[in-house]
């Protein structure tokens, strides 16, 4: 029960993370930035030349980080879900049909079933060179994989 409560708290705290809450956690650092940079951070925007602390305050914790050839990239990902109807495997349907005929199932089986699928969409990619924002993109329709 304790682990479940801890996990729920972590999820809630992560979900409620906003630029304002991240600014509060880093107030002294935030106060040292120019008014233009402060305004951008408050509105969840980033600019070229921002350091990693500024990007964190504006956008939050990235889902993934990767580094190669002196460049670091932060990725923000979002999972999408859907439920679709698919044809049942022939063997599964036959087994369920057999169980129904033997009286082990209350209703006749369907030849289709609902399947829950997820995929992950790339929401934002920020590239750093020497610890400063070099460039970024908000890819539309870019996924780390197809529906599974």
Question: Could you describe the 3D structure shown?
Answer:
This protein has a 4-stranded antiparallel sheet with strand order 1-2-3-4, with no helix packed on it. The longest helix is centred in the N-terminal third of the chain and has 14 residues, at 2-15. A hairpin with a 2-residue loop joins strand 3 and strand 4 (132-137). The protein contains 6 helices and 4 strands; from the N terminus they run αααααββαββ. It is α+β, with helices and mostly antiparallel strands.
Short note summarizing the structure:
The chain is of the alpha+beta class and 148 residues long. It contains 6 helices and 4 strands, in the order αααααββαββ. β1 and β2 form a beta hairpin.
Distance from N terminus to C terminus (CA atoms, Å) equals 31 Å
Q: What average pLDDT do the residues reach?
A: 87
Q: What count of helical segments does DSSP give?
A: 6
Helix content: 25-40%
Profile the largest sheet: 4 strands, antiparallel
DSSP, total strands: 4
Decide which structural class fits the backbone: alpha+beta
Succession of helices and strands:
HHHHHEEHEE
Strand content: 25-35%
Cα gyration radius (Å): 24 Å
User: Which residue ranges are poorly predicted, with pLDDT under 50 across at least 5 consecutive positions?
Assistant: 1-14
What is the general shape? elongated
Largest sheet: spatial strand order:
1-2-3-4
